[in-house]
Structures are given as C-alpha cells and as structure tokens.
Specification:
Length: 158
C-alpha cells in the first residue's frame, strides 16, 4: 500500500488518465489497482494459456512481462511524459523466481528506485492471492528528454 498524499495520488492518476487504453494490457488481462507518484500496483488475471502444465503456476515469461509493464506504468506516475520526457524504453530487466505463482491472479507492487535524467529504475514484488512472494524483479529504462534546439541568433553586421 502506498503512503502518498491525496495530491500526489491525484497527480499520478491524472498523468495516467492522459494515456490511451493499452491493448497489450487488455491482451494480458492486466488491471491497475493503485497508483501514486513513484508507485503502482497491478493485477494480472491468470488464464490457462499463461499457466505451466501440472502445477498451474503462472509462467516465468509472463511474470517477467508483468515486471516490465509495471515499471513502464510507474514511469508515467514519476515523470510528466510530454513535458519532462518524451518517452522511455527498457534497457535491462531481471527477475528472481522465489515460489510458484499459483492462483487466479497475481499482484505486483512497483516502486521507483531511481529517477534520473537518462535512466530510471523500478523494483517489483509479485505476490499470490495468499500473499506469498512469488518473484521479485527490477527494470531499468532509458528515458528520452527533449533535445534543445539551437536557434541561430540574428546575423551580426560587419
């Protein structure tokens, strides 16, 4: 759970509300549960094609995608995209699998570790409905700023 102020939560929701609906989130079955500046919580609704046969746990590649998408969403709460930066892209992603992610859904809490001019880092904790820590992940993103335009000044006479 986040401990931000009502204003910081409002700003985070406003920033995210400016984004178009993400069809990839719809495909995955991701749902945004909570946000604050530098924080987000998402839920992945696990469906049969996402599960390992036999133990019915969410596949590791799906969990890695949740890490990537959670940190990408987090950046929209931390940066004012379109004003502070123009965009971002993943440069590194790691995940540690700690327990089977079994259940009808998993929830991922994501926190901003570093907000820089060129790089941002987020950490993600993925839990089962029973609260079992199934995986931890970290993603580093390159953030793109606005290029300053060099405008030639007026010509100086001789």
């Amino acid at each position: 759970m986040t401990t931000g102020t009502a204003d910081s939560k409002r700003r985070a929701w406003e920033r995210l509300s400016r984004l178009p609906v993400n069809p990839f989130w719809q495909l995955l079955g991701l749902e945004l549960l909570d946000v604050d500046e530098g924080y987000c919580k998402v839920r992945l609704h696990a469906r049969p094609p996402m599960l390992n046969r036999g133990i019915e746990s969410v596949m590791g590649g799906v969990l890695a995608t949740v890490v990537d998408e959670a940190v990408a969403t987090l950046l929209h709460t931390a940066y004012d995209i379109g004003r502070e930066i123009t965009g971002h892209t993943t440069t590194e992603l790691s995940i540690s699998f700690l327990a089977p992610a079994v259940g009808p859904y998993v929830e991922a809490e994501c926190r901003l570790v570093r907000k820089g001019r060129t790089l941002a880092v987020g950490e993600v904790y993925i839990r089962t409905p029973e609260g079992v820590l199934a995986a931890t992940g970290r993603a580093t993103y390159m953030v793109f700023g606005f290029q300053e335009r060099k405008v030639a000044g007026p010509a100086r006479g001789v």
